[in-house]
């Protein structure tokens, strides 16, 4: 059994969701073993978009076990969220002043904890945290082994846009923690090299953003038992790929055809959808 945990706005789901399900889970023989847990924000047109998303997932052969908005989420703890925001803003960095990053961190953890609560006593073989609404995922190599190794202690990831692991690893990754404690790892020997191996672009500027938070968690808890699945698109002409996506974001074959000669060991190409709202 596989749980897919999603937090985020729907944005460009109409362009991406159906294709992303095929790319991430198309090799799974029985899609009915995949259960979705979705936490989102209420936006204009929510009811119609929710219905469309439910239909796409149903057509894929999977089911939704939870689908709720933050304004009606009974699991939401505003005091805990505010503590995480306040801690983040005390970080001695002028870039750590917004509320978006810590709230996003909290709400992703919340979505995961909701899945844990609702599946209590029936742990999933694999748990996936993903962003299929507003990302472009393109499979360059088979993901079969990622889902089949149910006893593996390896955490698979694609920077901050995809995590796949068993319950033990995902619990470690998505436990509520003060962000200042997490980011203390950034000053440790070896962290910058670790970050560079995963994302050479962001490692140069080390922003106080969600990706840096996850890189610090990976470095602290998973540096010896994690695998980066994502192709690092900073290694080739990003502008050309971006323009391809703008011309026709549904034409993913053009993208993977372009990057294939550059691929060494990575499994997935992951890109923010250029047309996301």
From TrEMBL:
This is Uncharacterized protein. It comes from viral metagenome.
